[in-house]
Specification:
Helices cover 50% and strands 7% of the residues. The termini are far apart. The structure holds zinc ion.
């Protein structure tokens, strides 16, 4: 049941079951299963009759966990908070019901109430927080207080793709567990078993991260990528205005991912390399790379990175998409 490449690092951690640190920070590339690792850690720690140190899947505790109903387990994620997003964000259907990107202080205060109670099963208590970089500053400070006075029998697990964005004081109170990208063969086998179509293409696009690849292999995501790639491949340039019409933040995020990986591939092809992400679009990449200017591609890459950072803030998605597509044309129609 556990994702195969998580088993070994988890078993290693669980070998120290009786002297685990109060707080863990699970890091590693996006899409390799960090959140699943944190959950499996919790399930194994809470399990009443572990098998080979990992959860048995049979005991009452495992059963409750499977029902998302374990009284000694809490998961903290950014909560829906449309009221924070102001008027600047398009509130289209796509964005409705979308989770806000921050973890608020009230959510951390709720942890303090939770840890003040005794555990239901007279064992451990586990709190998983992901993504940890979503903590608002006040929430981060409140969490720091909890980490400074660790509640008894409680494990707090932070999950983050970007640990550098956490307070150094939080990082220093956690033991780091860094998960690795699995071997390509293992990742491919897992994706095939999960029924993903074109696993090779999805895996390349995801830079080898299998869970991200599984997401990108979904029909909706594949269609979206095809649409963006078709636009980026146009010999006479992307139709920036037409393409960006009707854009919202969700579209923008997905487009930024495609553009970023595409520009990385252009840089590689331009430098006589092979595409790494869009492996099924090599001819189009080569055609675009011929007229592209390296220094402009690198400048565009920086701009895309900045846009991805800002996507969490209220912004006009259509204008950003238009602007980036025009910058792309300038970089590739020299
Ligand atoms: Zn169990």
């Amino acid at each position: 049941m556990i994702i195969p490449w998580l088993r070994e690092p988890l078993a290693r951690l669980m070998a120290r079951r009786d002297r685990l640190p109060h707080a863990l920070l699970v890091t590693g590339r996006a899409g390799i299963g960090k959140r699943e690792f944190a959950r499996e850690f919790a399930r194994s720690l809470l399990c009443e009759s572990p098998v080979d140190r990992l959860s048995c899947g049979q005991c009452p505790s495992c059963h409750w966990f499977g029902q998302a109903n374990h009284p000694d387990y809490r998961e903290i994620v950014p909560e829906s908070a449309e009221e924070d997003e102001g008027d600047g964000v398009s509130a289209t259907g796509k964005d409705a019901g979308r989770k806000s990107l921050v973890v608020k202080i009230e959510q951390i205060r709720a942890i303090r109430a939770f840890v003040a109670l005794s555990t239901h099963r007279a064992g451990h208590r586990v709190i998983v927080l992901h993504p940890a970089e979503a903590l608002q500053p006040a929430a981060a400070n409140a969490l720091l207080k909890t980490l400074e006075e660790p509640p008894p029998a409680t494990a707090i697990v932070l999950v983050s793709d970007r640990p550098a964005r956490l307070l150094a004081t939080i990082r220093s109170r956690c033991e780091s567990v860094t998960l690795r990208v699995p071997a390509a063969s293992e990742a491919r086998a897992w994706l095939e078993a999960a029924g993903a179509s074109e696993p090779e293409v999805a895996l390349a696009l995801a830079g080898g991260a299998p869970l991200l690849a599984a997401e990108l292999a979904q029909p909706e995501e594949r269609d979206w990528r095809r649409r963006v790639v078709a636009e980026l491949s146009r010999p006479d340039g992307a139709r920036a205005l037409a393409f960006a019409a009707g854009f919202d933040r969700a579209f923008l995020e997905r487009t930024l991912f495609v553009m970023q990986t595409w520009v990385h591939d252009l840089v590689r092809v331009k430098s006589a390399g092979e595409p790494r992400h869009h492996v099924d679009a090599a001819p189009a990449l080569r055609a675009k790379a011929r007229r592209a200017r390296l220094e402009r591609l690198l400048a565009l890459d920086r701009e895309l990175l900045e846009a991805r950072r800002l996507v969490a803030h209220p912004l006009n998605a259509r204008l950003v998409a238009e602007h980036l597509m025009m910058a792309y044309n300038r970089a590739t129609l020299a």
